[in-house]
Design brief:
The complex is a heterotrimer. Chain B is mainly alpha-helical. Helices cover 70% and strands 1% of the residues of chain B. By secondary structure, chain C is an alpha/beta fold. The chains are: A mainly alpha, B mainly alpha, C alpha/beta.
Chain lengths: 345, 358, 503
């Protein structure tokens, strides 16, 4: 009984690790530099989170099914290349953005086809489309660094003089993702499939269609993120979107999404995850830490996140192991209530 | 009554089908593909068969083959090692920063290892008699150590291998760049650079790599350890019940993978005559791709050194042809990505054929 | 006139050439509770899997409401109003109760694509009330106790408008109070006109619930009739039956009085409790226990695949403190696991590779572990021929191509090549045909005759009586009784396991 309770506590900590970490790191940086805790800096952190955050939303869908999408950076680049080239050719923003987003989504469809129909493992497929996609982007841009006209640089524009457009788009995407995952049949079926594919098939769910859908969503999110990123950066270079998959995976996993599928959410999970990563980066910049040391810190944070994930899943499995002898299981109502409460957090 | 003609369309298409299936399942499928590719390309780019080009082709192949051998071991136990590229870069920097004979303070003055390993009149071991052997040994040790780290985390924390090695990849690739502030360390001693210097077909890298390959092949096919690798990759649980010390084997496998990367780093660094912090970055796809194209399965339990050689040879040949054709860089990327997908497709097809026929 | 909801006519089913159902005829009346009993491997699960659309039948006819019925998948069975409540529950732990009810067809909120949460909540509440569960339908399943999950599964069946509900060992993970509750609900379902098929090893429960009882043995219906035609004694005797001919080889050796393995007060919370026994050299000690009795878990602890909280394990007088299979093997222990596919064999590897796996270090140079291949190959060839493994080429053919009996011989051979002095076998004849069973018993006999100690775990009482020197009976993680050869008696052993009498 005592051991059981300790496990529950450990589980509670493991489940809420990102929030605890968030508070801890925020306090630590604030103590180090008083300007860190300012409203202005907080806004900076959110602004910097917008594009990666949107990618991470799509990644969360993919991870919920137990898959992975390494190609999001390449998808961003393809979208960016098309948007920048169309603008360069004199097309308006209103034409360039939808075309770019369509191209990125199509790239996602390509992943979806190979993974759900041909049944090649997601890691391999997206590794291939990551490389080929980058090449494709370089091909159409001829490796040039392309600046976009001012009408595209709406990253700093505030709607109603209040919310910058990237933040607004990010918030909207989060809202839509939450609604899909929590309130639509499709969303709940994604969770069901991530929990147990075989049981999902038995229940008559179309797992092929569900699998395909998450990769298309991931492609779409990467494409939107690309547009947001261009609006902030003002140009598309050969390294556009490179390495963003790691940050997106890290944000999702830090936010409590499991690499093993079935567990996680976009809000608060992934949102906290991405804010945490950007806050660390921002804090390190405040501390004037070398750029590559920042990368190393990020690597360690990711390792920590997946470590926690693996421990959490291991513990849940152990707790769920069927007991043969039952006389030890005492469930007083009060205790059960408390467990329920902690598990909700 | 109708008599089915001997060469009816169905009979022909059936024969063709069995032929293609046999070909796909053959161990030498990729080798045949290499030969076919070579023969097909020769009329268009006759240069490809010139001794100079062949020597160039093979000198590109050897170090890549060496790393891919390590990857093959990891794939056999159903793992993956994405950190090999970073190990190549990091050991390249470490090796060079021990033996560079002259270091420009204007370039490296800001480096965190300035004044510790790097000095104006050369690196710390630059003018000592055993400097180069010690540097080589250090490179190998660092490779083993990073491999140990990968293996230990995978075996004990039970985190998926691709995630662990992705993190170590990020970490050591950044550390390599951080150490030298993105600069290449040049002025390496002759005794080091001569290792990888071009000396025709029969070069030191060839001898080194062939020795490594023979040893690796021997380990896989003739030792207890080799059998343990396959058993872990085929069915981890059954292997554990049968007394295979799975953690030890997993750790040793990733150590070997790190060793192979450091080994290749020696060849690459000496050939380029520099310690380069981004040396290994472009190779990741070639390494995993080479092993998988050769026939090692990402699902584990399958893989041979010779298969990997064919896979690497195929990729090197393809790259060589594309560069001779003056194809721009991005086309090479597109082709590489497609080849990875094609390899995965072949793997899936093979498995399906086997399912229906056994 | 009889109102049959479900009729089986001459149903046959074979797996890999082994007949598991032979000409099964059963008629089930609407609104009745039918108890289905039989030993493990009697064909109960197969029969129910056919009904639930998990496997198809080979020949025969199945009528549902007088209409021909042959479900191709579980979804079709569910559509036809048949719900299957498995031992392993089919709920999605990460979803709420209400969501689990409607996962394959959510009602929408007006014309929007959104789930009508209010409606599913209300509907779920109603069905939960029917099974007396007073919990919020929004509760996530992972927070429920095993008993509550079972009831949720019943409520889910009701929500899907099931007319026939199959319970497969529903009480194994329930407390006494939860069991009572479930029985009350089954009674209520029955009076609401639902038809129930109840499968259990707990005969007392079957007798209490069922209107009719069907007994299966070796894939055949051996007895069927109204409840009043049965009592616990007749149930057991018809389940066990009488066997013809010699199915078991003669024991040629006697156990010694040298201790090979001693277990003292071994406990692990929630798994096993206060296990004490000794195993002697040359002895075959049977462990009888049903699924969920803790028998396999005990074997895992003994072999070092799992930990224990307290108690001692002594191997030839030396305490065994480590917990890795490798160390156990070095102490000359061997373990033929219950689950060949997952824990026993490398299915895609060759027979030879499987056979050599355990003993590899014996055939290698001490330094570097280089294999003496010809020696190893010869040894494998000898083992293959001495165990009479039927395989064309042990060095080419994959293990998955062999029949169940031959696969089991490969597993045994793998351990025998290491000359074990303590051999634990867990259900060694599961999925093995009769002829191969005899050979496996002979192999185990020979091992014992050579002085090794054998712990023979099984849920088939006949084979234990036929093969063992002594039998321990396990249940709820404890040793419930011990029988020496002279005391062997099927009924008494079963009674001890079921705790029906004696206590």
């Amino acid at each position: 009984m005592r051991i059981q309770t300790n496990h529950r506590w450990l589980l509670f900590v493991l489940r809420n690790i990102s929030l605890l970490l968030f508070v801890f790191i925020f306090v630590a940086f604030s103590l180090f530099n008083e300007r860190f805790a300012s409203l202005r800096n907080f806004e900076n952190i959110i602004l910097a989170s917008a594009d990666v955050g949107i990618v991470a939303i799509g990644m969360t869908f993919v991870l919920l099914t137990g898959g992975i999408d390494l190609s999001v950076g390449a998808t961003m680049y393809i979208t960016g290349a098309i948007v920048a080239l169309m603008l360069e050719d004199g097309w308006g923003v209103a034409a360039a953005i939808p075309c770019g987003i369509l191209a990125g989504t199509l790239w996602g469809c390509f992943n979806a086809l190979l993974i759900s129909r041909v049944r090649i493992i997601p890691f391999m497929v997206t590794l291939g489309t990551l490389t080929a996609g980058r090449g494709l982007g370089l091909l159409i841009t001829e490796s040039r660094h392309i600046s976009v006209p001012n009408e595209m640089r709406f990253g700093a524009v505030r709607v109603f003089d209040l919310v910058p457009i990237p933040v607004l788009v990010f918030a909207l995407m989060v809202l839509v993702a939450v609604v899909i995952l929590k309130y639509t049949p499709f969303g709940r079926q994604i969770y069901a499939m991530g929990n147990d594919v075989e049981a999902a098939k038995k229940a008559g769910l179309d797992t092929t269609r569900l699998t395909a859908a998450v990769y298309i969503i991931s492609g779409f999110c990467a494409a939107v993120a690309s547009v947001i990123s261009i609006s902030q950066v003002g140009s598309v270079s050969a390294s556009f979107g490179r390495g963003i998959e790691f940050q997106a995976i890290a944000a999702s996993v830090l936010g409590g999404t499991s690499l093993f599928g079935g567990v996680g959410n976009v809000f608060p999970g992934t949102v906290i995850g991405i804010l945490l990563i950007q806050m660390i980066q921002n804090g390190l910049i405040f501390m004037r830490v070398d750029l590559y040391l920042q990368e190393m810190v990020k690597a360690l944070v990711i390792l920590f996140a997946v470590f926690v994930d693996a421990q959490r899943m291991g513990l849940i499995k152990r707790l769920e192991r069927r007991n043969i002898r039952l006389e030890k299981r005492i469930a007083r109502p009060a205790e059960a209530k408390k467990l329920e409460w902690t598990a909700w957090q | 009554m109708t008599v089915t003609p001997k060469f009816s369309p169905e009979a022909v298409s059936n024969t063709l089908k069995t032929f293609i299936q046999r070909l796909l399942l053959s161990e030498f499928f990729i080798f045949y593909l290499c030969v076919a590719l070579f023969v097909a390309l020769t009329p268009f780019i006759p240069v490809i068969a010139s001794p100079y080009n062949l020597s160039n082709l093979f000198s590109n192949t050897w170090p890549l083959f060496a790393v891919a051998i390590g990857q093959t071991f990891v794939l056999i136990i159903a793992g993956i090692d994405l950190s090999q590229g970073a190990i190549i870069s990091f050991t390249s920097v470490i090796g060079a920063s021990l033996i560079a004979t002259k270091v420009d303070p204007a370039v490296f003055g800001q480096s965190p290892i300035w004044g510790k390993l790097l000095f104006e009149d050369g690196a710390i071991l630059a003018h000592t008699p055993l400097g180069v052997p010690i540097a080589l040994l250090t490179m190998i040790l660092v490779g083993l150590l990073i491999g140990f780290l990968n293996g230990a985390i995978i075996a004990y924390a039970r985190i998926p291998a691709f995630m662990v090695t992705l993190v170590t990849q990020m970490f050591f690739a950044s550390l390599a760049i951080y150490f030298v502030k993105s600069e290449n360390i040049i002025n390496l001693p002759k005794s080091f650079t001569s290792i990888g210097a071009d000396s025709g077909l029969l070069s030191i890298p060839l001898v080194m790599t062939v020795v490594l390959a023979v040893v690796a092949h021997f380990v896989l096919s003739r030792t207890v350890f080799g059998r343990w690798l396959y058993s872990i990759g085929t069915n981890l649980r059954a292997a554990v019940v049968s007394g295979v010390p799975e953690r030890k084997v997993i750790i040793l496998t990733y150590m070997f993978s790190g060793f192979c990367a450091a080994f290749a780093s020696i060849i690459y660094s000496s050939r380029m005559e520099m310690g380069r912090p981004t040396l290994g970055a472009p190779f990741l796809l070639d390494i995993v791709g080479g092993a998988v194209i050769g026939g090692s399965s990402l699902a584990g339990g399958k893989g041979k050194v010779i298969w990997t050689f064919f896979g690497v040879l195929f990729l090197a040949l393809l790259g060589n042809a594309l560069s001779l054709l003056n194809v721009p860089f991005f086309w090479i990327e597109i082709v590489k990505g497609s080849v990875i997908l094609a390899a995965a497709l072949i793997d899936v097809t093979r498995t399906r054929i086997l399912q229906y026929h056994v | 006139m009889d109102d049959f909801i479900l009729q089986f006519f001459g149903i046959n089913k074979s797996f890999f050439g082994v007949k598991v159902l032979k000409n099964v005829n059963i008629e089930i009346r609407r609104g009745h509770v039918v108890g289905l009993i039989g030993e493990n491997g009697a064909g109960k699960s197969t029969l129910m899997n056919i009904l639930g659309g998990v496997v198809p039948f080979d020949s025969g006819k199945l009528l549902l409401d007088g209409q021909e019925y042959a479900p191709r998948n579980p979804a079709e069975a569910a559509q036809a109003g048949i719900a299957f409540i498995h031992q392993e529950l089919n709920l999605f732990n990460n979803l709420s109760i209400a969501e689990n009810f409607f996962i394959s067809g959510f009602p929408k909120w007006g014309k929007t694509p959104l789930i009508d949460r209010k409606r599913i909540r209300l509907a779920a509440q109603e069905f939960l009330a029917q099974v007396d569960l007073n919990i919020s339908p929004d509760m996530t399943v992972e927070k429920l106790s095993p008993g509550e999950r079972q009831l949720v599964e019943v409520a889910k069946a009701l929500s899907q408008d099931a007319r026939i509900i199959i319970f497969d060992e529903p009480t194994t993970s329930l407390t006494a109070r939860e069991t009572e509750r479930l029985f009350g609900i089954i009674e209520r379902l029955k009076s609401a006109g639902k038809t129930i098929i109840y499968i259990s090893h707990i005969l007392r429960d079957v007798l209490r619930l069922a209107d009719e009882i069907v007994v299966l043995r070796d894939g055949e219906v051996v007895k069927t009739g109204p409840k009043r035609a049965f009592n616990i004694q007749t149930m057991i005797s018809s389940m066990v039956g009488r066997y013809l001919g010699t199915l078991y080889p003669e024991r040629t050796s006697r156990p010694t009085d040298e201790m090979a393995l001693e277990v003292r007060h071994l406990s692990k919370a929630g798994i096993v409790h206060d296990i004490t026994f000794s195993l002697y050299k040359g002895e075959i000690l049977g462990v009888f226990g049903l699924m969920g009795s803790g028998r396999s878990e005990l074997a895992h602890i003994l072999f070092g695949l799992d930990t224990h909280d307290s108690g001692e394990i002594l191997v030839e007088g030396n305490p065994r403190n480590h917990r890795t299979p490798r160390k156990s093997i070095q102490q000359n222990m061997a373990f033929v696991t219950e689950n060949r596919r997952e824990e026993g064999l490398l299915m895609t590897a060759t027979v030879a590779e499987n056979m050599g796996l355990v003993a590899l270090p014996r055939y290698a140079t001490p330094l570097g572990g280089v294999l003496r291949q010809s020696l190893l190959a010869e040894s494998i060839r000898n083992t293959v021929s001495s165990l009479r493994v039927k395989v064309n080429d042990a060095f080419q053919n994959q293990a998955k191509g062999l029949s169940g009996g031959n696969q089991q011989k490969v597993v045994l051979g793998k351990w025998l090549m290491n000359n074990p002095s303590i051999l634990i076998v867990d259900e060694p004849t599961r999925g093995v045909d009769v002829g191969a069973k005899y050979e496996i018993y002979s192999i185990i006999n020979e091992i014992a005759a050579k002085g090794a100690a054998v712990l023979f775990i099984s849920s088939e009482i006949e084979e234990l009586i036929g093969v063992c020197d002594r039998i321990l009976v396990m249940g709820v993680g404890e040793i419930l009784g011990q029988f020496s050869r002279a005391e062997f008696n099927r009924e008494r052993i079963l009674q001890t396991a079921f705790r029906e009498g004696g206590k």
